[in-house]
Amino acid sequence: HFNSHSGLPAKLINGGIAGIVGVTCVFPIDLVKTRLQNQRQGQQIYKNMMDCLVKTVRSEGYFGMYRGAAVNLTLVTPEKAIKLAANDFFRQHLSKNEKGLTVFKEMLAGCGAGMCQVVITTPMEMLKIQLQDAGRLAAQQRKPASMSPTKLAATRVLSRSYNAGPSTATSALSATQIARELLRTQGIPGLYKGLWATLMRDVPFSMVYFPLFAHLNQLGQPSQDESAPFYWAFFSGCLAGSTAAVAVNPCDVVKTRLQSLNKGASEESYNGVVDCVSKIMRKEGPSAFLKGAGCRALVIAPLFGIAQVMYFIGIGEFILDLSPFN
After folding, report:
1. HSE on the CB side for 61, CA within 13 Å?
2. What is the largest CA-CA distance in the chain?
3. 221-241 burial: b if 16+ Cβ within 10 Å, else e
4. Based on the number of CB atoms within 10 Å of its own CB, is 21 exposed (0-12), middle (13-18) or buried (19 or more)?
5. Rounded Cα–Cα distance for residues 158 and 260 (Å)
6. 113-116: which pairs have CB atoms within 8 A and are 24 or more residues apart?
7. In whole angstroms, what is the distance from residue 154 CA to residue 281 CA?
8. pLDDT tens-digit readout, 250-295
9. Residue 160: how many CA atoms within 13 Å on its side-chain side?
10. 140 near 267, Cβ under 8 Å?
C-alpha cells in the first residue's frame, strides 16, 4: 500500500465513500450539536446530548434526526474532494525541492485545504443548520403548553420572512426552498453567511488535523517502509479529528449562531463574528463556547477515522482498477 502515491481520482472516490458512510452514521449527533449550540440560558429545552436525541426522536420521529442530511450527503463528496485535492496540491508544491515536509509546511498545506473547502462548506452548513434547528424552535414555541409529544408535523416551524420572528407556521421546508429564498432576498452572500466563522473553524482545524494525523500514524509504523495497520489509521484519524474538533469548537459555536436565520423568542441576533463573540461572552460566559464540543468530537472522530480507513483499504483504487478506462 503506497497510499500517498495513489492518484487523485482514487483519493476522491475514497473521500466520497468515506463522507457518505460517515455522515450517515453520525448525522443525528450533528443535529444535536446544532441544537445544543443554539440554546440560550433560561430556555433550555435539552439538558444534554442524550436528552436531545430522545426528545428529537419522540417529537420528530427517527427521520427527524436526519433533517438536513440530504444537503450534507449531496455536498459532502465535493467538499471532501476539494479538501483532499487542495491538501495534496499544496503538499506537492511545498515539498518540491526537499524530501519531506516540515510540520510548518504541513500546516500550511492544511491551511490552504481549509481555505478552499469553505466554498462548499459554508452554504452546505448554512442550509443544514436551518433544517436541523427548525425542530428546536418548534419545540420552544410549544414549551409553555407542556411538552406533549404530539406529532410535530402541524407545527414544523420556519418563519417565512426571516425577521418576522416565529409567527407563521409553515410546513417543513426543503433545502432547495431555503436556498431559493436566500438567493432571492440576499443573493449569493445570503448563502455565504458565516463565511469568516467557517474559515476560522476549518483553517485551524486542517492545520491541527493533517500534521497531527501524519505524526500519530507514523507512531504505528512497524518500520520506515511499512505502513501502519488499518486499525491504527482509524484510531489516528479519530484522535486527530476529535482533538482538532474540540480545539476549534468556539469557532463552531459562533458559526452556528451566525448561520441560524430563525431565532426563538428572546434570542438575540448578531452582526458578525466580533459582535457574536462579545455577546456570548457577556450573556453566557466563556463556557458557552464549549457547547456541543462533546457532540462535535463524537461526530468528527468517526468521520475522519472512517475516511482514513477508506484510504488505507484503497477502495477507490479497487474501483478504478475494475473500470474499463485503464
Report:
1. 7
2. 68
3. eeeeeebbebebbbbbbbbbb
4. middle
5. 11
6. 113/82, 113/83, 113/84, 113/86, 113/87, 113/206, 113/210, 114/83, 114/199, 114/202, 114/203, 114/204, 114/205, 114/206, 114/207, 115/86, 115/199, 115/202, 115/203, 116/82, 116/83, 116/86
7. 36
8. 999 999 999 999 888 778 889 999 999 999 999 999 999 999 999 9
9. 5
10. no
Only one residue has cell 446544532, namely: 34
Low-confidence ranges of the chain (pLDDT < 70): 1-6, 143-172, 325-326
What single letter denotes the amino acid at residue 115? M
Task: Express each pLDDT in 206-252 by its tens digit.
Answer: 889 988 998 898 898 888 778 788 889 899 999 999 999 999 999 99
DSSP designation for 230: H
Cell, residue 42: 433560561
- Mapped onto helix, strand or coil, the DSSP state of residue 237 is helix
pTM (2 decimals)?
A: 0.84
Q: How many CB atoms lie within 10 A of CB 301?
A: 22
Neighbours of 123 (CB within 10 A): 24
Q: Are 159 and 166 within 8 A, CB to CB?
A: yes
C-alpha 58/C-alpha 250 separation (Å) is: 30
Of 38, 17, 29, nearest to 284 by C-alpha is: 38
| Residue that is written with C-alpha cell 416551524 in the block | 157
Residues whose CB is less than 8 angstroms from the CB of residue 54 and which lie 6 or more positions away in sequence, other chains included: none
